[in-house]
Amino acid sequence: MGERGFMPTANKNFIGATAALLLIGLAALTIIVSMSIWLVELNEEEFDRVLAVRVVRANAVDLRAALQDIETSQRGFLLTASENYLTPYTQSRDDIAPLYTSLVQHARTLPNLTGPVARLGEIIDDKLVELDGTIQLVRDGQQQAAIEILQTDRGKELMDEARAIFASIVQTTDAAYVEAAGNQRSSVDWLRWTTFAGAFIIALVVGSAVWMALRYTRELLNARREVEALNAGLEARIDERTQDLVRANEEVQRFAYIVTHDLRAPLVNIMGFTSELDTTMETIQTYVLADGDPLSEQEIKEARLAASEDLPEAIGFIRSSTRKMDALINAILKISRDGRRPLKPERINLGELIEANANTVQHQVADTDGRINLDIKTPPIVSDRLSLEQIFGNLLDNAVKYRAPDRPVEIDISAHRGPNRRIIIDVKDNGRGIAAQDHQRVFDLFRRAGTQDQAGEGIGLAHVRTLVRNLGGDITLESEFGQGTTFRVTLPEQLPNVDRSN
Predict the structure, then answer these.
(1) pTM recorded for the entire structure
(2) Residues with Cβ < 8 Å from 472, sequence gap 6 or more?
(3) Which of 18, 260, 418, 470 lies in disulfide reach of 424, CB 3.0 to 4.6 Å?
């Protein structure tokens, strides 16, 4: 009694402690994630700054080298008047503008370089004017005038100022690079320590939770042993109730299958023959409502054919489908009332039963210019009629539903006697086929194979297999993807006493 009184308190304490640990773990995880995101973003900003600084430094160095190259090339040309000296000038002259543009763009990340970079642009413009002018004077034969310009030292002063600015840019970028790299290292250190601290806290929370779970589990085991001692026969009763639940669940699944799947085939058939009735009625109305207007022999022939053959045939098929629907609905109502449908053994002509089921999809097959071939060579069997109708109705419906779009539907149904008083029925179609890896999958409940372009819940073949096994048989398939499928149903000639709960 003491242990039983202790359990509610222990359970309450366990729930409270677990909730507290979860809150602590959630808070630690939130802090870790937030800090990690912030530090990563900070590190990315510093990384972008490092890249910009490196580009500024590289542009400054390259721009300085280009100015030096064109100045050296200009001086050689002024002294020799040889165009060969202008090759470096021409090459470097074209690089200056894009280098300076890139320098201006990336220097925006370093505000203290805005003024020097702008002044550098003015110097470059002035220097290029001086260089281009002296080169043109030499080409015009005024070499002495060009040398006199050079001797004014104006160009030297511009280059000296430019070199000073370049040196300042390099020094500034180096300092900025060192600062950004230090910031990155600091961010990484913070991220590392945050991760370590968070990992320690989470490990502590998990360890505490495991310890509490183990302790609570021991308490539950003790309580379970006490309950087992007081209720020695409880396990057997639980097993019995579990079996009842399993059987009830199977019936619910079968019920859902009948509602969503089996009833669809006769409905589609009725709709198809209703459409055919509309066409037939139009032909008959043309004849009946002629009001004395002369009709052609063809119109009269079509009206008589519709009245004598098409109309009775369509009505007959609709009645056949209606009777099947009525039987299914009655079965559904009975299942819902009784929970289980007992098998009703009766003598059945298998050829007539399969032919009747084939007629329910004949209209859909005919729409594709296809055909159904029957070769039934078996004696009458004793089995459950409704189960057989559902089995072959489902297989035929699937053969039509999953047909290959590029060829007419062709279904071959053959049946013959096998060993040990068994009946073997093959339902072969030329549809899409089933991939090898899905041969067993299609029989699993709620599993479907191939392209899912048809409505359904994946319970049809699972229900078919259950029905076949309830009759004491089995179902297998052979299929090649893209070629077609053959379902082989093996049934006993005489329905055995099968326990449907197994």
Answers:
(1) 0.36
(2) 491, 492, 495, 496, 498
(3) 418
